[in-house]
């Protein structure tokens, strides 16, 4: 009998195992296809749940407004660092949980009150950190054309508080095999359903893989990614069928699955 602790550490070891991961498609072409659709509908706002250095930077560049949220402070940091590499993007790091991380201020330099006219709403728990090493003072006349905000906290809590209209929702948080990972991604959609724009895109990562106690990890290696029936579901295991029942169309599926309501 394995203990719950061993079970979950095995789960995480497998999902982060490189040899196993190499059998899978790269997410990049999927992200780019979703962005083509986003551009076609002239989308503005992208929200990512589960941040990553690569995805955050590509999404931030492709959209006028980008929000990314991660429960892990280190993932939030790396997402933040990837975003501020692009000097046209105004960055903030918001703590939506109660505790401010003192290391964060040390790492990034300073905190200060929000200047007037910035497009991000500030709360008592929000602090600004250095935006760009070249910009030492904020120029009120130079409005940024793009904004990106990194939140450190739980994705469900974040979506519950989020009020902007979302054009593209990218769900990629709770790891495959961790407790209730399918349910959590489904709940994430439910939390923000009313804030999805009239035309909207839902992109879900890791839909090519599943985990069960009986079978362990299993991959769908079928290359016909447009055949809905061959997808396993993974993080979209509950959400994809719910969306299909509610008028969504699958644009593509495989490593990632993209659905639109148009
Ligand atoms: C697979 S990684 C994200 C990768 C990223 N989206 C990319 O494309 O590069 C999953 C992330 O989800 C985060 N995560 C797990 N549970 C979460 C939660 N409850 N809320 C927000 N993020 C969560 C983890 O900390 C981890 O950084």
Task: List the keywords.
binds S-adenosylmethionine, 9 helices, Rossmann fold, 262 residues, alpha/beta, two-stranded antiparallel ribbon, 9-stranded mixed beta sheet
Describe the protein's architecture and organization.
This protein is globular. The strands form 2 sheets. Strands 4-3-5-2-1-6-7-11-10 form a 9-stranded mixed beta sheet, sandwiched between helices. Helix content is about 30%, strand content about 25%. Helix 4 links the parallel strand 1 (about 45-50) and strand 2. Helix 4 (about 55-60) crosses helix 5 and helix 7 (about 155-160) runs parallel beside helix 8. It has one domain (about 5-260): Rossmann fold (3-Layer(aba) Sandwich). By secondary structure, the chain is of the alpha/beta class. Bound molecules: S-adenosylmethionine (SAM). The site of S-adenosylmethionine (SAM) has 19 residues, from strand 1, helix 4 and strand 2.
Topology of helices and strands:
Blueprint: H1 4-15, H2 18-22, H3 28-40, E1 45-49, H4 53-62, E2 65-70, H5 73-84, E3 89-95, H6 102-108, E4 126-127, E5 146-152, H7 155-161, E6 166-171, H8 181-192, E7 196-205, E8 209-212, E9 216-219, H9 239-245, E10 249-252, E11 256-260
Parallel strand pairs: 1-2, 1-6, 2-5, 3-5, 6-7
Antiparallel strand pairs: 3-4, 7-11, 8-9, 10-11
Bound molecules: S-adenosylmethionine (SAM).
S-adenosylmethionine binds at residues 27, 48-52, 54-55, 69-72, 75, 154-155, 172-174, 205.
């Amino acid at each position: 009998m394995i203990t719950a602790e061993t079970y979950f550490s095995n789960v995480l070891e497998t999902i982060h195992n490189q040899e196993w991961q190499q059998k899978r498609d790269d997410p990049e072409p999927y992200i780019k296809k979703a962005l083509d659709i986003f551009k076609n509908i002239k989308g503005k706002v992208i929200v990512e749940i589960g941040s990553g250095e690569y995805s955050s930077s590509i999404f931030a560049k492709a959209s006028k407004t980008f929000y990314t949220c991660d429960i892990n402070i280190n993932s939030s940091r790396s997402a933040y660092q990837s975003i501020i590499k692009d000097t046209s993007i105004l960055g903030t790091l918001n703590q939506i949980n109660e505790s401010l991380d003192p290391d964060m201020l040390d790492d990034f330099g300073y905190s200060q009150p929000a200047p007037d006219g910035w497009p991000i709403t500030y709360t008592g728990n929000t602090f600004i950190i250095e935006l760009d090493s070249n910009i030492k003072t904020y120029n009120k006349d130079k409005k940024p054309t793009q904004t990106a905000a990194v939140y450190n906290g739980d994705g469900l809590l974040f979506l519950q508080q989020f009020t902007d209209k979302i054009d593209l929702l990218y769900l990629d948080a709770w790891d495959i095999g961790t407790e209730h990972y399918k349910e959590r991604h489904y709940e994430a959609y439910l939390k923000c359903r009313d804030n999805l724009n009239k035309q909207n895109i839902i992109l879900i990562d890791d839909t090519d893989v599943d985990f069960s106690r009986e079978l362990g990890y299993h991959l769908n290696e079928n290359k016909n990614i447009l055949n809905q029936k061959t997808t396993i579901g993974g993080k979209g295991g509950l959400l994809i069928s719910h969306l299909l029942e509610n008028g969504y169309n699958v644009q593509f599926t495989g490593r990632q699955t993209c659905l639109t309501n148009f």
